[in-house]
Write a structure and sequence with these properties.
Helix content is 71%, strand content 0%. It has 2 helices and no strands. This is Glycerol-3-phosphate dehydrogenase.
């Protein structure tokens, strides 16, 4: 117990109770501040994630638009002929088989004199 002081006992008790309240509320206030900071950080992370996704979608849309524009600007008939020529030089078609007649092979006619 405290010793008797020249200060009124009611004043001493009220100050002691106020100090005890500050000490008792301290951990709860600290946790509240921690939760608030965590909520703000989590909100900013979600905002940054959404922003990054939007920017990625815009880049993908621009890339697709440029690709389609490039495809539409090419003369397709000329390209088809060029590609066909390239394939023919790489893989020439096989020679046709000799004709087969029911009566037997046909020999070329002798040269005229």
């Amino acid at each position: 117990m405290m010793e008797t002081t020249p200060v009124n006992d009611q004043i001493t008790d009220s100050i002691t109770q106020a100090n005890t309240e500050v000490l008792g509320v301290g951990p709860a206030t600290a946790m509240g501040n921690t939760y608030q900071a965590f909520a703000q950080a989590l909100g900013l992370a979600a905002l940054n994630s959404t922003n990054a996704q939007q920017q990625s979608n815009m880049s993908a849309q621009a890339t697709t638009t440029m690709g389609v524009t490039t495809l539409y600007s090419i003369d397709t008939a000329t390209d088809a002929v060029g590609v066909s020529d390239i394939f023919d030089t790489l893989n020439p078609p096989p020679p046709p088989p000799p004709p087969v007649y029911p009566s037997g092979p046909v020999y070329p006619a002798p040269p005229a004199k």
